[in-house]
């Protein structure tokens, strides 16, 4: 009788060697892996902010840090023409701005391309209910920043602080467990093999690599949620006038919210969540017709907006006619669109995802790798920054008390601080999206009543503003 | 040193208040109904517009409904009832139905009016017998009416909705030509039932109450034949408000009916005539029987 194969106990899920199909690349191991305290996969706002935060914090500035980014961030950014803005912009809340200021990144931003705004107007597409935010103090509600401006500022900060080994451009070809050498037992250390041939072992591996995070797949952490069946159409627009005070406008149409956020000068960025078919129609329109559709989205009734999406051209004239016969107050509307920046109209699919947990042994997720949210409240990047602030705190506490920064005992504090708060924000944004997608008469009446009530109740409005600002 | 005590005169105060209300009404026509009173009417939104408070509107609706139930020849009261009951939802729904259709949108842009000047009646008389225009002008001549007998819309606040109501009123005669229903009380009730199922205006639904004033035989015919026909066709047909009548004058009536999805109802005039003949015959037989 052939000998039975020896039964080996299965490793716990967080220690198992991963290798889902999509990660099975050729691994090249040349010599012993280089050891790092923190390896951050992903050079987006979350990853860069984390490394900058660790370097600028005195208790963690001695840690050996590495950054792995697939795109080449070592090159200086291409100069942009004045009046030309990237179509991927984010609204930074005061708490994110405060964190960036604390780590020293705020001064690195190109401030001429940052637009603080002090007023916000949000209203319903089916009724005339509206809520306006105009804080009594001069502190802004949020700051509109191009994503490239932020990442460039963080990169420059990291370069000026030094001490971060940057592997860019480099892709992670394999993540596994480290070898056991005569001097080190790296069997619990995540070890990465890069496309450049380098291998790194991390005391703590940070996954800041976006919604389809390979680090999260490696850890075997499920991410639950759903697709909204909507896409976000973004564009950079030039408006007919530069309005003061700078106001953010958002209208909840039945297909999704359309938001026009102010940029410096007579420019604005558009985020329009709509169905994929309508997004395809919008992207096929000429610049003038697209601008007319944006104007219509804020001013006209849903019947007209639906009809405009059935036309392949001629929206300019149609919207001009309908504006004369629709009752609205021009003073409450954003300035009309004069031109669309060439090539700035793009679309990205919208979904909600939340990872079951943010940590594993010697592994933590931040930013979009941990959660993806609907853009209607402008929270996506800010949740990531709050994650980073909490993680930097947790790491610095661990270092000051002599803890192992990669152990789940230390990292659980990070989950405790962030998971619940993120889940609540994801939930609220999801329910708002569902509430404002409804067309049933009584529900529209109820939500309009609720919106008007919140608009009149100062304390409630103040509470909601503080929650959205991350305070 | 003189101090300029500029005490505003009453008339300028009233003017200012009226202007404020006008701004409120312009911003949202429905908001005007809450902020104005009998002494403080807003300015009209279009020529002939008479803004009403909700109480006035309710009183107009009730009183005109009662009066034209007893005297259905009062077309002006029927019109007033229609306008008083059409706001805010039914007329808006009808306007949105026009906005959803490309033809309806063209009608709203062009705003054609059906008057004896805009329609060339002698030309319509010369058209072939199966055309919409010829049917329409024959109907006008038979009933002895002109397109100018329709009253203007007064009580609808939004100018565009007022045009939609006017268009509906002026197209009513074309609906007679389209369906072939005569202008006798029975035919009008059947047509109103069809219009209610198709346009949803409350006045057309209330007009079905005139069934109570019909003779027994007519009532039976309504419930068994014309009522079901009206409901079935009104619901399944296209919106008749979206028909650009000025462009359909030379179309074949049957072809238009097929395009809209309307079945031709049984010929009411023929049925009534047959009914009259039958009764006359019975009466003659009865008299002959008594004499002999």
UniProtKB/TrEMBL annotation, chain A:
Catalytic activity field: a 2-methoxy-6-(all-trans-polyprenyl)phenol + 2 reduced [2Fe-2S]-[ferredoxin] + O2 + 2 H(+) = a 2-methoxy-6-(all-trans-polyprenyl)benzene-1,4-diol + 2 oxidized [2Fe-2S]-[ferredoxin] + H2O; a 4-hydroxy-3-(all-trans-polyprenyl)benzoate + 2 reduced [2Fe-2S]-[ferredoxin] + O2 + 2 H(+) = a 3,4-dihydroxy-5-(all-trans-polyprenyl)benzoate + 2 oxidized [2Fe-2S]-[ferredoxin] + H2O
GO MF annotation, one: 4-hydroxy-3-all-trans-polyprenylbenzoate oxygenase activity
Protein name: Ubiquinone biosynthesis monooxygenase COQ6, mitochondrial
One GO CC annotation: extrinsic component of mitochondrial inner membrane
Quaternary organization: Component of a multi-subunit COQ enzyme complex, composed of at least COQ3, COQ4, COQ5, COQ6, COQ7 and COQ9.
Organism: Trichodelitschia bisporula
InterPro entries tied to this protein: FAD-bd (IPR002938), FAD/NAD-bd_sf (IPR036188), Ubi_Hdrlase_CS (IPR018168), UbiH/COQ6 (IPR010971), UbiH/COQ6_monooxygenase (IPR051205), UbQ_mOase_COQ6 (IPR000689)
Lineage: Eukaryota, Fungi, Dikarya, Ascomycota, Pezizomycotina
Cofactor: FAD
Pathway membership, UniProt: Cofactor biosynthesis; ubiquinone biosynthesis
Record Pfam families: FAD_binding_3
Enzyme class: oxidoreductase
Key word Mitochondrion present: yes
Main location: mitochondrion
UniProtKB/TrEMBL annotation, chain B:
Reaction catalysis annotation: a 4-hydroxy-3-methoxy-5-(all-trans-polyprenyl)benzoate + H(+) = a 2-methoxy-6-(all-trans-polyprenyl)phenol + CO2
This protein's record includes keyword Transcription: no
Localisation per UniProt entry: Mitochondrion inner membrane
Region (Disordered) residue spans: 267-292
Domain of life the protein comes from: Eukaryota
InterPro entries linked to this entry: Coq4, Coq4_euk
Membrane topology field: Peripheral membrane protein
Assembly and oligomerization: Component of a multi-subunit COQ enzyme complex, composed of at least COQ3, COQ4, COQ5, COQ6, COQ7 and COQ9.
Function: Lyase that catalyzes the C1-decarboxylation of 4-hydroxy-3-methoxy-5-(all-trans-polyprenyl)benzoic acid into 2-methoxy-6-(all-trans-polyprenyl)phenol during ubiquinone biosynthesis.
Similarity comment text for this entry: Belongs to the COQ4 family.
Official protein name in the record: 4-hydroxy-3-methoxy-5-polyprenylbenzoate decarboxylase
């Amino acid at each position: 009788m052939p000998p039975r194969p020896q039964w080996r106990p299965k490793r716990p899920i967080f220690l198992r060697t991963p290798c889902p199909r999509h990660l099975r690349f050729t691994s090249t191991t040349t010599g012993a892996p280089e050891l790092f305290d923190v390896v951050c996969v992903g050079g987006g706002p979350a990853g860069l902010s984390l490394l900058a935060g660790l370097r600028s914090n005195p208790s963690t500035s001695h840690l050996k840090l590495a950054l792995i980014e697939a795109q080449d961030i070592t090159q200086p950014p291409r100069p942009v023409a004045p009046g030309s803005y990237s179509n991927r912009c984010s609204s930074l809340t005061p708490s994110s701005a405060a964190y960036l200021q604390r780590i020293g990144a705020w001064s690195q931003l190109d401030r001429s391309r940052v637009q603080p705004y002090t007023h916000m107007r949000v209203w319903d597409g089916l009724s005339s209910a509206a809520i306006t935010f105009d804080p009594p103090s001069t502190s802004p509600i949020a700051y509109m920043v191009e994503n490239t401006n932020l990442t460039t500022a963080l990169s420059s900060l990291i370069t000026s602080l030094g001490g971060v080994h940057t592997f860019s451009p480099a892709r992670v070809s394999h993540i596994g467990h480290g070898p056991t050498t005569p001097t080190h037992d790296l069997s619990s250390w995540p070890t990465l093999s890069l496309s450049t041939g380098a291998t790194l072992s991390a005391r703590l591996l940070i996954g800041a690599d976006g919604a389809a995070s390979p680090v999260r797949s490696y850890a075997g952490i499920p991410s639950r949620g759903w697709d909204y069946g909507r896409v976000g159409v973004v564009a950079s627009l030039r408006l007919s006038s530069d309005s003061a005070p700078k106001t953010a406008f958002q209208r909840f149409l039945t297909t999704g919210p359309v938001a026009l956020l102010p940029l410096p000068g007579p420019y604005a960025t558009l985020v329009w969540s709509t169905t994929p078919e309508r997004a395809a129609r919008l992207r096929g329109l000429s610049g003038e017709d697209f601008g007319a559709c944006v104007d219509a989205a804020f001013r006209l009734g849903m019947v007209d907006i639906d009809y405009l999406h059935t036309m392949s051209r001629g929206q300019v004239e149609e919207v001009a006619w309908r504006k004369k016969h629709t009752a609205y107050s021009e003073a409450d509307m954003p300035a009309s669109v004069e031109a669309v920046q060439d090539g700035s109209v793009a679309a990205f699919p919208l979904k909600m995802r939340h990872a079951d947990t943010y940590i594993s042994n010697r592994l933590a997720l931040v930013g979009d790798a941990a959660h993806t949210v609907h853009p209607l409240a402008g929270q996506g990047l800010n949740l990531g920054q709050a994650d980073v602030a909490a993680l930097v705190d947790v790491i610095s506490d661990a270092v000051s008390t002599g803890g192992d920064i990669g152990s789940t005992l230390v990292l659980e504090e990070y989950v405790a601080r962030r998971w619940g708060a993120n889940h609540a924000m994801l939930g609220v944004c999801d329910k708002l999206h569902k509430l404002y997608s409804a067309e049933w008469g009584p529900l529209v009446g109820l939500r309009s009543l609720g919106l008007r009530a919140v608009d009149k109740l100062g304390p409630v409005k103040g509470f909601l503003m503080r929650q959205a600002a991350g305070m | 040193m003189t101090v300029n005590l500029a005490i505003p005169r009453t008339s300028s105060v009233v003017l200012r208040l009226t202007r404020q209300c006008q701004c409120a009404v312009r911003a949202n026509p429905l908001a005007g109904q809450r902020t104005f009173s009998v002494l403080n009417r807003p300015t009209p939104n279009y020529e002939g517009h008479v803004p009403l408070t909700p109480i006035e509107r309710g009183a107009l609706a009730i009183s005109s409904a009662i009066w034209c139930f007893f005297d259905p020849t009062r077309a002006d009261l029927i019109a007033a009832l229609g306008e008083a009951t059409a706001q805010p939802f039914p007329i808006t729904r009808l306007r949105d139905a026009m906005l959803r259709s490309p033809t309806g949108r063209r009608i709203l842009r062009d705003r054609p009016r059906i008057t004896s000047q805009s329609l060339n009646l002698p030309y319509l008389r010369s058209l072939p017998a199966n055309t919409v225009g010829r049917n329409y002008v024959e109907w006008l001549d038979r009933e002895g009416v002109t397109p100018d007998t329709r009253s203007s819309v007064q009580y609808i606040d939004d100018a565009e909705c007022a045009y939609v109501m006017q268009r509906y009123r002026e197209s009513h005669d074309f609906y007679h030509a389209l369906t072939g229903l005569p202008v006798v009380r029975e035919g009008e009730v059947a047509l109103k039932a069809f219009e209610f199922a198709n346009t949803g205006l409350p006045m057309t639904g209330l007009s079905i109450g005139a069934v109570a004033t019909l003779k027994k035989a007519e009532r039976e015919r309504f419930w068994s034949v014309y009522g079901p026909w009206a409901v079935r066709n009104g619901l399944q047909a296209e919106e008749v408000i979206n028909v650009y009548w000025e462009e359909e004058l030379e179309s074949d009536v049957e072809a238009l009916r097929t395009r809209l999805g309307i079945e031709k109802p049984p010929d009411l005039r023929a049925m009534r005539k047959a009914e009259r003949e039958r009764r006359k015959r019975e009466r003659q037989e009865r008299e002959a029987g008594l004499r002999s």
